[in-house]
Amino acid sequence: MTARDGQERIAKVLAQRGLCSRREAERLVVAGSVLVNGEVITDPGRRIAMNAEIIVAEAGRKRLDRRVTVLFNKPRGIVSTQPEGKQTPAWSLLTPQRCADAEPDPTVLAEPWHCAACGRLDQDSRGLLVLSQDGALARLITGSHQWSKEYLVTVDVEPDPRQVSALRKLRALDGRPILPMQVEPVSERQLRFVLHEGRKHQIRRTCSFVGLTVVDLLRERVGPWNLDGLDEGRWRVVPRSEVEMILTTGDANY
């Protein structure tokens, strides 16, 4: 939907300017923390000019500064999104005992902790999972092709050169185009994949397409972040200054 007469909902304007996500913007507006052309706006449905002067009040800025981003080495069998039935969600493992930081961040340990998995990692896979309360960061990671993700993949048999070549040349999955994948042999039955998108079960399905079965999938890197000695089942907080630098530059390799 296009803006009418150069106007758009206030939350969308805030999100387009990279200040926060739409949901975060709506919360700030309802809390009275957003001024438009000097006027405090409390109606999240209010439409404003796209070029309006917007100021987030100090209370709102402090709220945004408290948003936490966590790197978690997810074990196999844990779900990264909303659990179903008896499934164990990743956020439930963010306990003081599992924290790799010297002092666990109290914001993370508070319940309930609203966060988003920035790039889902399926239940049968393991490795680096980014969890964040920052909607703008989540959108940047999941919606930008410059955020590459690296995986170490173990398959059932040693791939032959034709299978590796076929994976590199694959440009469609289920009739839909996909971006080129970087695929390199690592050892007898291991391949390293670098992806710039995240279709559902993409690596498993593309391997199956060329006659390979994935027996283990480990995500080692998301953009500038890697496991860096983080043991399985452990987590650490990303400094807010680091997140702000990424959001300011829009560059995963700042």
In short:
The protein is α+β, with helices and mostly antiparallel strands and 254 residues long.
What is the element layout, followed by pairings?
Blueprint (H helix, E strand, L loop, with lengths): L6 E3 H7 L5 H9 L3 E3 L2 E2 L6 E3 L4 E3 L1 H8 L3 E6 L3 E2 L8 E2 L16 H4 L6 E2 L8 E7 L2 H9 L5 E7 L5 H9 L2 E2 L2 E2 L4 E6 L2 E6 L6 H8 L4 E9 L2 E2 L8 E4 L1 H10 L5
Parallel strand pairs: 7-8, 10-16
Antiparallel strand pairs: 1-4, 2-3, 2-5, 6-10, 6-18, 9-10, 11-15, 11-16, 12-13, 14-15, 16-17
Helix pairs in contact: 1-2
Task: Write up this protein.
- The chain is an alpha+beta fold.
- It has three domains: 7-65, RNA-binding S4 domain (Structural Genomics Hypothetical 15.5 Kd Protein In mrcA-pckA Intergenic Region, Chain A); 69-145 and 225-249, Alpha-Beta Plaits; 149-222, Alpha-Beta Plaits (2-Layer Sandwich).
- Helix content is 25%, strand content 28%.
- Strands 6, 9, 10, 11, 14, 15, 16, 17 and 18 form a nine-stranded mixed β-sheet that branches. The chain has a three-stranded antiparallel β-sheet with strand order 3-2-5.
- Strand 2 (34-36) and strand 3 form a beta hairpin.
- It is globular, with a radius of gyration of 21 Å.
- The mean pLDDT is 89.
